[in-house]
Design goal:
By secondary structure, the protein is an alpha+beta fold. The chain has 12 helices and 9 strands. The structure holds 2-{3-[(4-chloropyridin-2-yl)amino]phenoxy}-N-methylacetamide.
Length: 342
């Protein structure tokens, strides 16, 4: 019976050898037939030889053959699964495909716009200043000549932290702080975040960007204001842009003006234009000669010095420039939106 035990071993080895050569379902089926086939399968034939084994040996040899049979079935099953699985990663790499481009991030459009504004004023010798976003009532209102019951002080506009501290509603406090420290000549702009109690809609959000500018020196006149702002707007938009000054009012300037540019979208030709409302003009800046009282508040003699100041919303202006109809797009961080400006 040693002979039969030996046959079992030999059969197992040759089956293992056969497994190595399986490459498709056809070769797998052939291997299955040659071992488990009902008539000529090598294991089937082996089981037939069991009748010649002595009764004492029969159970043991039978067990060995059955073990081999289960082994063969298990292996064939495994290989059949393997053939159905997708091919391994290695064989799936297609070297002819273009590579995946890495997205490197991009500057935020508001930041991009702020930089452009800064560069234009730097050309004219302005410094760029910064200051706190949490301010006192004095720097945000009083020093700027706001009457005690001015509507901008109202709870509806200002986000108060306590009776005296608030989130600045404009960037003007920075100019007050600079004028307190530095004496004229002063030529500065101060871009930054400002806060108002607003319910978000397409043109209002509670946090937005402003840039203000200030020039204080001997003999500064409205002509300097006009020339500076015209240079700025032509540099920011185009040399051919239309510009107009309209009389206006601010508590901290006298006289005051509002500055409009000709509509960049319809050029004044569309009576239903969504950007200019059919007027042909877009309001872009507020400006004026610094009120003598404001200069007094920071110990600058208004008899000797004069100055002009201006302010504009960066988000608002960027909206016109990029022709965006909803301010909130700037703050939603939707990459499909952001990537357009890069
Ligand atoms: C606007 C108008 C303006 C100023 C801001 C200013 C600052 C000081 C003194 C005088 Cl310290 N004026 N700033 C002046 C006129 C207009 O802003 O529409 N801003 C968005």
């Amino acid at each position: 019976m040693v002979d039969l035990r030996n046959k079992i071993k030999v059969l197992k080895n040759s089956f293992d050898e056969g497994l190595v050569h399986i490459k498709d379902t056809k070769s797998l089926q052939e291997l299955r037939n040659s071992y488990l086939g009902r008539k000529k399968g090598r294991i089937t034939l082996l089981l037939r030889e069991l009748k010649d084994v002595t009764p004492e040996e029969k159970p043991k040899i039978g067990e060995l053959i059955n073990e081999l049979k289960s082994y063969v079935q298990k292996k064939l099953e495994e290989f059949s699964h393997k053939l159905q699985e997708p091919k391994s990663i290695d064989s799936k790499i297609d070297l002819t495909l273009p590579g995946k481009r890495k997205y490197r991030g991009a500057p935020h459009p508001i930041l991009l716009y702020k930089k452009r504004i800064e560069q234009i004023f730097q050309l004219m010798g302005f410094s760029i200043e910064d200051g706190p976003e949490i301010e006192t009532d004095y720097y945000n209102f009083e020093a700027l000549n706001f009457p005690p019951h001015h509507p901008a002080r109202d709870d509806w506009d200002t986000l108060y932290i306590n009776d005296d501290l608030l989130l600045r509603t404009h960037t003007s406090p920075v100019q007050i702080r600079v004028m307190e420290k530095k004496k004229p000549p002063i030529r500065m702009i101060n871009p930054g975040k400002v806060y108002r109690r607003e319910t978000p809609d397409p043109t209002h959000i509670p946090m937005f960007y402003q840039v203000e500018g200030l020039v204080v020196d001997l003999g500064i006149t409205f002509a300097h204001l006009k020339g500076t702002l015209e240079f700025f707007l032509r540099a920011l938009y185009s040399d051919s842009i239309k510009i107009r000054f309209r009389p206006s009012y601010f508590p901290f300037t006298e006289p005051s003006a509002e500055v409009d540019i000709g509509c960049t979208v319809c050029g004044g030709k569309d009576p239903n234009c969504r950007v200019c409302g059919g007027t042909g003009w877009i309001e872009i800046l507020g400006a004026g000669m610094v009120d003598p009282q404001v200069l007094k508040n920071v110990n600058i003699d208004p008899e000797k010095y004069s100055g002009f100041a201006f302010g504009m919303g960066i988000d608002r202006t960027a909206m016109f420039s990029f022709r965006i109809s909803d301010l909130r797009n700037f703050y939603e961080n939707d990459l499909r939106f952001m990537r357009q400006f890069y």
